[in-house]
C-alpha cells in the first residue's frame, strides 16, 4: 500500500438474497483529504461503510488500512445507551478505547464543547435527532483518530447545525485528520470535500475531483453519472 | 469491566433493585413476624429450625425467578437497540462483550440475593440468633451458586435463542432445578416415558434444590454435602463457557 493512502478498498462485493448491494467497488482515500462517498439513498453506501469497518461481512474483496492508524466512526443512525448522559456515553466509549481516565475526562469536556453539546444531566433518551448526531460525531473523535468515517453526519440537523458541522470538518482537516464522508447532500460535500466517488446500485459510477470540476457543479456531475433528480 | 458496570448502572437506573427490596420487605412481613403466620397441616410453624429452611426456599425461588427476568433482556437489548455497533468498531470481541454483560446479570442477581438476605438477617435477629449471624455469609455464597447458574444459563440462551424461547427454556430449567428433590421422588413413582424424561432432565439440569438445602444446612448448623456444591460450581462453569462460545449474528 502506497504511503499516501490511508485506506484502500478493492473489489468489495456484498449481496443480500442474491441481489448485489455492493458490486466490485474499489477506491482509496489519501491522507489528509476529505473524501466524499456519494450516492442516492439505497445506493449501497452504508453497507460499503459497514464492510470497511468489519460490521458487515463481505462476500469478497479486500480492505487495507495504513499501518497503526486509529479509525473513528459515526453511524448514519446513531444509537446510544438511552439511560446515560452525553458525558457518560463518551466516558463509556472512551473507556472501551482504554483512554486513561484523567485524559478521558479532559477530552470529553473538550469534545462536547467542540460539537456544541452541553455537559448537562439530560439523558440521551431525551436528545433530539440533531443532538444525537452531534454526540455520534463526538464519540467518533475520541482518542484523536487519524481517519474519520462519517455516515450521513448532517442527517437530522437543521441548516445552522449543518453549517456548524461542516465547519468542524474543515477544522479537523486542517489539524491533519483524514475524513471520509458518506452523504447524499451534495451542497455540503461540494463545499468541503476534495475528491470522491459516486456510486450507483452498489457499483462505482464515476469519480469526482474538486479541481477537475471546471464549470460543472457536483450536482451536475452526479446527475450526468447517475441520472434522475437529487434531493 | 466497563461494559459490565455500565449494564449494572442501567439496572440500577431502571429501579430493578427497588422492586427486589419491596419483595424482600414482603418476605420479612410473612416470616419475620414469628406470630404463626405460616401453618402446615393446621399447625403453626414458629420454630427457627423449621422456618429458616422454608425462608431460604422462598428466597431461592424468588432470586432464581428474578435472575431469569433480569438476565433475559440484557444481551438481546444491546442488539435490538443497535448500541453494539459502536462497541464492535472499538475492536471489542463478541465473547468479551457477551461475557461482561453476563457478569452484569450475575452481579445484579447476587445483589438481589443480598437484599433478600437482609430479610433473613432480620428474621435471625428476631429469633435471637445474633451469635449465628456469621452463618449468613457462607449461606449467601452457597445460594449465590444458584443465582450464578440461573443468570449464566439465561444469558447464554439469550445469545442464541429468541427472547420468548430463551425465557421459557430458562424458566423451565430453573423450575426443574428448584423442584429437583420433588422430581427425583416423582421419577421413581411415575416410570415409563414420563419417568424417563424426568430422569433425563434431572441429569442435565443443575440441582438448585440441593444447593439451597446445603445453604439451609449451614444456617441450621447441620453438616453440608460438598459434592452437591462442587457439582453446582461445575454447572456455573459450563454455562460460563457457553456464554463465551455462543455467537450472535450482528445486524
Task: Please outline the helices and strands.
The complex is a heterodimer of chains A (231) and B (251).
Chain A lengths: L4 E12 L2 E12 L3 E6 L5 H9 L6 E6 L5 E4 L11 H11 L4 H14 L14 H12 L6 E5 L7 H16 L3 E6 L2 H7 L2 E6 L2 E7 L8 H9 L5
Parallel strand pairs in A: 3-7, 3-8, 5-6, 6-7
Antiparallel strand pairs in A: 1-2, 1-4, 8-9
Helix pairs in contact in A: 2-3, 3-4
Chain B lengths: L1 H12 L2 H16 L7 E2 L2 E2 L3 H25 L1 H7 L4 H4 L5 H33 L9 H25 L2 H16 L1 H11 L1 H13 L3 H12 L6 H20 L6
Antiparallel strand pairs in B: 1-2
Report on this model:
The complex is a heterodimer of chains A (231) and B (251). Chain A is an alpha/beta fold. Chain A has 2 domains: 154 residues, P-loop containing nucleotide triphosphate hydrolases (Rossmann fold), CATH 3.40.50; 67 residues, no CATH class. In chain A, helix 3 crosses helix 4. Chain B has one domain. Chain B is 77% helix and 2% strand. Chain B contains 12 helices and 2 strands; from the N terminus they run H-H-E-E-H-H-H-H-H-H-H-H-H-H. In chain B, strands 1-2 form a two-stranded antiparallel sheet. In chain B, a hairpin with a 2-residue loop joins strand 1 and strand 2. In chain B, helix 1 crosses helix 6, helix 3 packs parallel to helix 7 and helix 9 runs antiparallel to helix 10. Chain B is globular. Classes of the chains: A alpha/beta (231), B mainly alpha (251).
Number of helices of chain A: 7
| Structural class estimated from helices and strands of chain B | mainly alpha
Task: Identify the strand order in the major beta sheet of chain A.
Answer: 5-6-7-3-8-9
Individual helix count of chain B: 12
Largest interface, counted with CB-CB under 8 A?
Answer: A-B, 19 and 18 residues
Strand composition percent of chain A: 25-35%
List how many beta strands of chain B DSSP finds. Answer: 2
The CA-CA distance between the termini of chain B, in Å, is 24 Å
CATH topology of the largest domain in chain A: Rossmann fold
Largest sheet of chain A: 6 strands, mixed
Separation of termini of chain A? 37 Å
Structural class of chain A: alpha/beta
The portion of residues forming beta strands of chain B comes to: under 5%
The number of E-state strands of chain A comes to 9
Largest β sheet strand count, sense and barrel closure of chain B: 2 strands, antiparallel
- Give the uncertain stretches of chain B in residue-range form: none
Q: Give the second-level CATH assignment, the architecture of the largest domain in chain A.
A: 3-Layer(aba) Sandwich
Please compute the radius of gyration of chain A using only Cα atoms. 18 Å
Average pLDDT over all residues of chain B: 87
Regarding quaternary structure, how should these chains be classified?
Answer: heterodimer
Amino acid at each position: 500500500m502506497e504511503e499516501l493512502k490511508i485506506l484502500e478498498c478493492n473489489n468489495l462485493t456484498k449481496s443480500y438474497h442474491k441481489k448485489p448491494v455492493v458490486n466490485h467497488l474499489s477506491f482509496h482515500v489519501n491522507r489528509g483529504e476529505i473524501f466524499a462517498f456519494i450516492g442516492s439513498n439505497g445506493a449501497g453506501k452504508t453497507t460499503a461503510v459497514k464492510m470497511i469497518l468489519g460490521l458487515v461481512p463481505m462476500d469478497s474483496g479486500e480492505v487495507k488500512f495504513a499501518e497503526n492508524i486509529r479509525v473513528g466512526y459515526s453511524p448514519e443512525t446513531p444509537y446510544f445507551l438511552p439511560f446515560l448522559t452525553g458525558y457518560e456515553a463518551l466516558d463509556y466509549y472512551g473507556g472501551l478505547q482504554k483512554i486513561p481516565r484523567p485524559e478521558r475526562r479532559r477530552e470529553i469536556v473538550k469534545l462536547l464543547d467542540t460539537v456544541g453539546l452541553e455537559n448537562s444531566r439530560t439523558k440521551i433518551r431525551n436528545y433530539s435527532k440533531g443532538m444525537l448526531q452531534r454526540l455520534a460525531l463526538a464519540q467518533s473523535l475520541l482518542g484523536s483518530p487519524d481517519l474519520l468515517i462519517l455516515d450521513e453526519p448532517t442527517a437530522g440537523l437543521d441548516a445552522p447545525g449543518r453549517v456548524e458541522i461542516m465547519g468542524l470538518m474543515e477544522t479537523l482537516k486542517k489539524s491533519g485528520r483524514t475524513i471520509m464522508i458518506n452523504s447524499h447532500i451534495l451542497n455540503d460535500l461540494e463545499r468541503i470535500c476534495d475528491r470522491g466517488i459516486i456510486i450507483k446500485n452498489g457499483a462505482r459510477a464515476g469519480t469526482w475531483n474538486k479541481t477537475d470540476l471546471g464549470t460543472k457543479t457536483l450536482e451536475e456531475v452526479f446527475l450526468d453519472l447517475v441520472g434522475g433528480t437529487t434531493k | 469491566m466497563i461494559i459490565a458496570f455500565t449494564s449494572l448502572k442501567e439496572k440500577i437506573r431502571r429501579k430493578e433493585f427497588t422492586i427486589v427490596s419491596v419483595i424482600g420487605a414482603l418476605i420479612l412481613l410473612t416470616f419475620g413476624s414469628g406470630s404463626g403466620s405460616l401453618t402446615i397441616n393446621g399447625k403453626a410453624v414458629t420454630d427457627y429450625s423449621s422456618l429458616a429452611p422454608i425462608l431460604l426456599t422462598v428466597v431461592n425461588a424468588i432470586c432464581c425467578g428474578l435472575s431469569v427476568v433480569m438476565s433475559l433482556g440484557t444481551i438481546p437489548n444491546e442488539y435490538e437497540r443497535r448500541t453494539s455497533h459502536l462497541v464492535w468498531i472499538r475492536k471489542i470481541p463478541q465473547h468479551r462483550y457477551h461475557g461482561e454483560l453476563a457478569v452484569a446479570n450475575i452481579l445484579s442477581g447476587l445483589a438481589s440475593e443480598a437484599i433478600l438476605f437482609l430479610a433473613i438477617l432480620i428474621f435471625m435477629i428476631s429469633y435471637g440468633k445474633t451469635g449465628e449471624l456469621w452463618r449468613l455469609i457462607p449461606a449467601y455464597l452457597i445460594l449465590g451458586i444458584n443465582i450464578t447458574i440461573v443468570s449464566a444459563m439465561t444469558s447464554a440462551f439469550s445469545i442464541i435463542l429468541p427472547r420468548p424461547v430463551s425465557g421459557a427454556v430458562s424458566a423451565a430449567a430453573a423450575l426443574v432445578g428448584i423442584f429437583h428433590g420433588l422430581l427425583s421422588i416423582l421419577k421413581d413413582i411415575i416410570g415409563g416415558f414420563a419417568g424417563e424424561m424426568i430422569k433425563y432432565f434431572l441429569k442435565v439440569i443443575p440441582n438448585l434444590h440441593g444447593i439451597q438445602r446445603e445453604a439451609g444446612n449451614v444456617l441450621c448448623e447441620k453438616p453440608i454435602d460438598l459434592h452437591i456444591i462442587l457439582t453446582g460450581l461445575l454447572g456455573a462453569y459450563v454455562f460460563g463457557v457457553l456464554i463465551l462460545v455462543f455467537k450472535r449474528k450482528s445486524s
